[in-house]
Amino acid sequence: QVQLVESGGGPVQAGGSLRLSCAASGYTVSIHCMGWFRQAPGKPREGVATIDSDGRTTYADSVKGRFTISQDNAKNYLYLQMNSLKPEDTAMYYCAVNFASSWLCSMALNDYGYWGQGTQVTVSS
User: Fold this and answer.
1) CA pair distance 21, 4, nearest whole angstrom
2) CA angle (89, 118, 51) in 5-degree steps
3) Hey, which of 11, 93, 99, 115 has its CA 20 to 30 A from 20?
4) Quick one: 34 exposed, middle or buried, by C-beta within 10 A (0-12, 13-18, 19+)?
5) What is the pLDDT of residues 29-79, one digit of tens each?
6) How far, in Å, CA of 50 to CA of 60, rounded?
7) What is the DSSP string of 33-82?
């Protein structure tokens, strides 16, 4: 049974850092596309970052240079290191897996079939 559980969210001041974790079970993270997504109140869910089976990463323009996606294959975890946080980064953050692809990962929400429950990040100015 596939399960994704996010953690690491919380309140933080602008300019601060957080590291989100996503514990995956029921499959191996390193052989599929995985991604982080976020949804702010009143806004559609959007892609933040993806990582493929070769470790290649993609980022939304809004987070490039500030966020880093990574995975720990031994622990079967996905991470999102978030630095220089801004109030506009405030959102619920979700991890998700795309079993149909293992490389050149897209950020299209419909490509990701399994999602975690989310972890809230709140950045104050």
Assistant:
1) 10
2) 75
3) 99
4) buried
5) 778 999 999 999 999 999 999 999 999 999 999 999 999 999 998 889 999
6) 9
7) EEEEEEE-TTS--EEEEEE-TT--EEE-TTTTTTEEEEEETTTTEEEEEE
Q: What are phi and psi of 23, to 5 degrees?
A: -90, 120
Strand order across the 18-25 sheet: 3-7, 18-25, 77-82, 67-72
The amino acid that residue 63 corresponds to is: V
Strands 3-7, 114-115: pairing is: unpaired
Distance CA 111, CA 11 (A): 30
Q: How far is the C-alpha of 115 from the C-alpha of 57, rounded, in Å?
A: 19
The first and second tokens of residue 77, run together, are 């975890």
Number of helices and strands in the chain (H, E): 0, 11
